[in-house]
Design brief:
Number of domains: 1
Order of helices and strands: HEEHEEEH
CATH superfamily: Dynein light chain 2a, cytoplasmic
CATH topology: Beta-Lactamase
Mean pLDDT: 88
Number of strands: 5
Shape: globular
CATH architecture: 2-Layer Sandwich
Low-confidence stretches: none
Largest sheet: 5 strands, antiparallel
Length: 118
């Protein structure tokens, strides 16, 4: 399955998904699929690297183990950030009304597929 197809399946499968974007180590978009202005997804993705780096740093101080993904909840929705490998990560934006457990299940399946493609 192509990178585009994986993201299309993810965003179309998850109810109330706003979008998903695959980004490289510099926060640059590789491929995206969204139901919003693509600039909005790219803006979020460019800053997710900072968040993910800080969380990964906790590993050494809190003995958390390897960080696979994280969910950030705000008043407007949820942001799911997950590691594909050292160089790539997946970011998904979902509405607050989206069932997080269902979104995480589909998100993790997409990460597995992306690992095969990268």
């Amino acid at each position: 399955m192509s990178l585009e197809a994986v993201l299309m399946d993810l965003v179309d499968r998850v109810p109330h998904a706003v979008g998903a974007i695959l980004v490289d180590w510099e926060g640059e978009a590789v491929v995206e699929r969204c139901h919003c202005d693509p600039y909005d997804m790219r803006f979020i993705a460019a800053h997710e690297g900072i968040i993910l780096t800080r969380i990964k740093e906790m590993k050494s101080t809190e003995q958390l183990g390897t960080v696979e993904d994280v969910v950030i909840t705000s008043g407007g929705g949820h942001l799911i950030i997950g590691c594909i490998d050292q160089d790539y990560s997946l970011v998904m934006n979902i509405a607050r009304s989206c069932p997080v457990a269902q979104a995480l299940h589909s998100f993790r399946r997409a990460v597995t597929e992306l690992k095969k493609e990268i």
